[in-house]
Amino acid sequence: MFILLAPLAIAYGQQAEPTTLNDIIVEAHRVDPLLSVTASGGATHNAIVRSDPVGVRCGPTRFQYDAYEAPRLCWIRTPAGTPIRLKAENPGTLGWHVEWRGCEASADETECVLTMPAQGAEVSATFVAH
Hints:
Elements: E1 34-41, E2 48-52, E3 57-58, E4 75-77, E5 83-89, E6 96-101, E7 104-105, E8 111-115, E9 121-129
Parallel strand pairs: 1-9
Antiparallel strand pairs: 1-4, 2-3, 2-5, 5-8, 6-9, 7-8
């Protein structure tokens, strides 16, 4: 199928007036810093890292979906200064702990906390069997 477009009318000998842009107002929305989470190690398909505030739902990278067939979501944007708690879960599996990097781990190593820095942050959770 061919479409024939009408030619544009060009006025020869006429020059367009230049446009002066004196009062330009640029409006932008703040982009919150990014928290990126990586889950790895010998975890099962049920293993997951969740966040508070809600947003992160990150399982081990070798699985595209979690046990409930929800897609992995391994990042969240939140304002700088926001306290974030990450919680590791590995239901149905005994004898495991998590090695956290990029945040402060709880005594039992199932959670970690951080305050979102302005430049963003990266956290890794490595599931380790005892």
